[in-house]
Amino acid sequence: MSGGVPRQHVIRWILAWILLSVLAGCSTWFAPKPPPVTEQPAPSPEPETESPPEAASEASAPEPANPPSAHAEAPETHKAPPRPVHRRPPPHRAPPAETPPPPAPVAPAPIVTTRLLSSNDTRSLLDARVQRPDGKVIGRAIDMFVDKEGEPIEMLVNLSGFMGIGDRKVRFPWSAFTFNMAPKKTAITLSVPRGQPPAAEALKKHGPASASATHDDAPLLRLIDATVERGDGSRVGRVTDVLIDNHAAPQAAVLDVGSLIHQRRRIAADWSALRFVRKNKDDGLTVQADLSDAQVEAAPSYEPEQPVRAVSPAPPPAKPAATSTASSR
């Protein structure tokens, strides 16, 4: 053929197409058969899980075409507001009760009361110097006698002889003495006319003093060495001295409260704590004091030349008054 496609080229194209068709048919014919199709049960639908709004928004948000540069600002994303979380309020608890502070320890009530005696006008009677009005010492006081009211009636004086020879004990009326109980001074002055023997009138009235009281002296009590008892008859102590003030009034009795077991000790019992009684009609006076053993132990000791505290039993505590409330009808 002239001016066209050569015949050989056409034949080659045809043979190539036939060859390709044969090869394609062979792959279809000789390929393995596919397995038979069987119906499979549909899978059960899975429960939908709520994805957090942030993840959903991120998933749904399209990716930017061009990634933002390092210096570019990140685009604002509108996040869904968080769900309100409803929490149960905590149970109401009552505030703990305040524990009251422990009560202050109550001091025990005192079982005795004391009274301070002035050292300027109170002095012991025993062995006090007795003088005339002119200042001459004639003897020493050694005892006193009281009545059932506790009033001093007489004083027993040891009149001095010459160098101890001719001493005698004479009782004088209490009213015949004046007292100056200041320390370091003659304490008692006996009112005796000048030139008259001091025991003249006393001897006419009473006679020589003896250790035991006569029948006429039964209403009086010789106080020094007298035994002080309680109302039940138990022993408290023994009178060893009496404290007198400048007004001739006894203020306290010094008691020896020691025993064979306990160490000897003396206390000053207030004169108001003493009672002078007669147990029987024919008996003489006895002195009593309502001081228990515990009160005697609690009493301060008596020491000469030291401040004196006269002790007496403490009054019982006052009972609270019973209040009666009238019910209204």
TrEMBL record:
Coiled-coil annotated spans: none
Query: Per the record, where are the segments of Basic residues compositional bias?
Result: 80-91
Which stretches does UniProt call biased (Low complexity)? 52-72, 320-329
Q: Which UniProt keywords apply?
A: Membrane, Transmembrane, Transmembrane helix
Under the heading InterPro entries, the entry gives:
PRC_barrel-like_sf
* Compositionally biased region (Pro residues): 33-46, 92-108
Segments traversing the membrane: 12-31
Query: Where does the record place the region Disordered?
Result: 33-109, 297-329
Query: Where is the secretion signal located?
Result: none
Q: What is this protein called?
A: Photosystem reaction center subunit H
- Record organism: Trinickia symbiotica
